[in-house]
Amino acid sequence: MSSWERLNPQLLRHFLAVSRCGSLIAAAQELHCVPSNVSARLRQLEAQLGVALFQRQAQRLRLTPAGTRLLPHAEQLEQLCRAAWSSVQEDLWAGELRLGSMESTAAVRLPEVLAALHREAPRLDLSLVTGTSGHLLGEVLAGRLDAALIGGSHEDPRLHGEAIWLEELVLVLPEGLAPESLTQAPVTLLGFPSGCHYRERLERWSERHRLQVGARQSYGSIDAILGAAAGMGVGLLPRSLLELHPRGRLVRWRSIEADLAAAPTLLVRRRDAPVHAALERLLELLRAEPVPATA
């Protein structure tokens, strides 16, 4: 038997506990044993390796150079053991999935998809956070979201984005307001707060048509925007939303130029994030979701 084959992986568990806790007493508490047991296991590991792994400094145990080199291998072995256990003991789709979405996407596109995911992964703890595209990008980069559905493109090299849908944005305005009259008097622009991709396109549309903007109003919900659009201003929203939302009948809408109307929805996540089984299944369901035809 080779020397490395005599190495007992169980001893590495005690080595990791001491390296993390810094003392035999604290490591023993973590391992639910007595300090003398931890000390004996460390001596056994050092004897097998033929090197000292710790040195005492000011009432704490510090890693030696050899211990420092051993540490990442011990951590990797611990992760492999956990993965091996999970592969046969746990539902691969259990755990937590933190998803972000634009408000309009969450209202129209996600209910059926998330219901299908729940049927397949009933033990999955899923949290859905809505917000503007700019805010959601920041949450994904910070690691507080596993992925997010945003409007438009992104330029951050740390993120991977995949186009899921292509929405058609349409101009929403009060029932009694003729589109031709928008250039004759100041108008109020309605939308989600700053950072919303649809709001940015509304600004570009108003500049292109040289509208006189009298005021800009921000709302945090679709209902509020549709309510305001029914009587006081104009906005841009996905046509699919207006066709399905109960308040869609309160407003009128008209098509706009194709370059501003075509708005892709992307799912973004960090490139360096580990594979998330539930997220991969969600992606499959999202790709299979039919996209309504647009005129």
UniProtKB/TrEMBL annotation:
Phosphoprotein found in the keyword field: no
MF (Gene Ontology): DNA-binding transcription factor activity; transcription cis-regulatory region binding
Keyword Zinc found: no
Keywords: DNA-binding, Transcription, Transcription regulation
Domain HTH lysR-type intervals: 7-64
Pfam family name, one: HTH_1
Family: Belongs to the LysR transcriptional regulatory family.
Name used for this protein in its record: DNA-binding transcriptional regulator, LysR family
Organism: Azotobacter beijerinckii
